[in-house]
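Annotators were shown the component list below and the corresponding predicted structure, then asked to write short factual statements about the assembly.
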Amino acid sequence: MALEPRSTDGDLLQGMVAGDEQAFVALYRRWQGSLYRFAIQMTGNPGVAEEVTQEVFLTLMRDPKIFDPSRGPLQAFLFGVCRNFVMRRISEESRYVRLAPLSFDGGNGSMEPASSSDLLSDLTQAETVDRVRRAVLTLPTRHREAVVLCDLQEMSYEQAAAVLRCPVGTVRSRLHRARELLLLKLKRSAVAQIPRAVAHPKAKITHELPDLQDDCA
Amino acid sequence: MNCQTFRTIVHEIDVPEGLEASALDAALGHAQDCSRCARQLHQARELVVSLQALERADRNRQTPAYCEARLLEAFRAQRGRRRPPAWAGWMAAAAALIIAAGAGLRWPPTSSPARRAPERAAVSVSAPPSSPAQLPPALTVPPPSRSVPVSRGSLRAAGTGKAVAANGPAEELADFIPLPFADQDAPLGSGEVVRIRLSEADLALLGVPVSEDAGGRSLTADVVIGEDGVARAIRFMPSSSSSLD
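Structure shown to annotators:
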């Protein structure tokens, strides 16, 4: 089967069911990144995200008939399966106490190398990213997945609603609440950073979220 | 727009699918007049910028290469389990030949599922018929009391593989074979199906082709008899059909 870059998900899935290895690889490469990112942004654990991503494709491989095109696109199906595995892992992980902080240094998608001319800017950028990531991970699961899907996966409300199997209005309200919570957490985080800023005068913490400290006084 | 309303929509101001144009204008106008709401809008936009930074940082994140390798290995194993062995094709072909040979003993081929057989009628052939166009005299006697009425439609249906309605235990039955010498265009009237027992040699008298070495073995068959008493079609019970060529 000659696969074109523009082959649809349906074509690739059909090829995969027929045993076409290239179709399977193409399907995997098309979706693995976003699924992996979703899993890592939801769990904060690259190892778990790897396993979850593999489980999604193993599920599809073992029983491709569980995907019903009449119920939605393959994207919604894959993210729905991924979400189920993620929730299961989060539930399992919640039984244990995390001893070490999460590390996001590994993986192919680590931060781009900082240029020497703008090292401080990159440093603050990296800190911003790190703080936002941690704030997202502390959100309640329902709100977290809304932020991850709409803000980090850049899905529309409709697409997120299809993944979450809920009305669009629910997505909107969860996202609104999630952003309010995020702002609150980041304000607290910014306040906590002030002593470090004093200790390191070159670090411009206020550059990240300048107005956030105003309401925290 | 008041501050309370503004607060409920502040996170959707910059979302393309978030607000209608009128609501957006009202919100932005309110933010120009209210410093507190303007600060909230600024914070909301800062948050969006921060989330975009996180999105950019993760944009190129991919699963390690070994994940694809593992899945590919699993895919090949799965495909291997699904693919039938090479000899399965030959086995299937041989089985098809055997089935085809078995089906050749019956004509027309059976295409319908299990049917209900008619009530057994205690009618037996005691003498060979005098004319191939008519049933033996023993068959033209008044039919058994538990014989089953049949219509023209059902006779045609029988010829096309549809079941003739009848009472009795369910069993796998062949289709009715129109008798060669019977006038199929003659009105069937309130025809009936009767079950008879006859010898193999008697089949030739009915116009049914039989092998040269057909003996005197007894066969059981259902015969469709028209209102005029003339046999129209016949079918053989499974236990007796194997002797036909």
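Statements collected:
1. The two ends of chain A are 64 Å apart (CA to CA).
2. The first helix of chain A runs from residue 9 to 17.
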